[in-house]
Structures
1.
Amino acid sequence: MGQEMECRMEFNGQPHSGKALLETNEIVFRGDLRLKIPRAAIREVSAEAGRLSVAFDQGTAIFELGKAAPKWADKILHPPSRVDKFGFRTGSEFSRIGAIDADFLRELAEAGAVEKEDADVVLLAADDKQALRRLKPLRKKTVWVIYPKGIPSITQGDVLKAGRDAGLVDIKVAAFSDSHTALKFVPPRKKP
């Protein structure tokens, strides 16, 4: 999701100033108070008069977000699916390289996306740096590199460097699962 906003927040009756971040799995507040609200701990969400109220295990946090409050409430209550994050729709075509999560392939099929051998969008499973060598011949395609989180054999820095070395431009990172992240690369824009 990656939304962020400077705001005031009231937590258990005490006012605080700082920045609120709406992440995929949590809401984070950084300021004179640091607070993390895991999505799994949220019991109730509402938006009224520019204020987002989030009740969770430790109490209630009220964020003064103005016009953004209803949008944040909707995103918390209805998070985007993986298919949505990747931008797939009915009729979208993709090809794959490596072992892509079977559940994700099923989600794509259910959404109407079609696997095609030479599609313009490629899903690349990269469990180590060696797999990143496959990026170079894909320089004219949109590529989602799906790689494990938190292991030394492949890092986000490795993925970024390999994509850029292949002549691609990184434009988006998305949480794929508890264990994997996805990074989107596209060909550079042609200069007029």
Note: The first strand starts at residue 3 and ends at 11.
2.
Amino acid sequence: MTLSVRKIAIVLILSTAQLGFSGAASAAQSRGIHFADTIQVEGYKLGLRGVGILQKFIFKGYLVGLYLPEGVAVKDALTDVPKRLEYYFYRDMAAEDFRSTGAPLMAQNVGQAETDRLEPKLAAFNQLYRDVKEKQRYTITYIPGKGTELGLEGESLGWVPGFEFAAAYFAIWLGPNPVSEELKEGLLDPETAAPDTKTN
């Protein structure tokens, strides 16, 4: 990947536009990309709650879907409950693009001291990343008592234990100072999304 394209990729991570939805059934088919209504993960049944798109101007980065168990309110997504974020990529991205942005985005949500304390686990998770190609899918999954898994195209790349790391890492998208407020609203409160971005 050339430096200029990698810079665009990093911008795509740091810049987003929202995509709202009206219920899981509508979210399951977003801009022609299918997300399953429900999934089974480590014995848990998780349902699709929202879908957002990361985009800067005309450049689309990826769609992301949030999965939670039935009965868990979206406001409790960062608590010690099973959850998954699933990403569909519109373009190739290098592993280093993910590794280089994790620490600053965690720090803006949980603070620098907590990020420094979790640095060994973040470093271990970063090593799991691989280059991703257009139309491939990453998943980030948290299972209580087990930890956070990174998956690529249905293959587990590895796990990092601990709830505290999971809460800090998922906060990049769902925390008090997320990568994008619009993306967070699309995932957690889709009714607030702009009308012209809603799917029907």
Note: The chain has a mean pLDDT of 81.
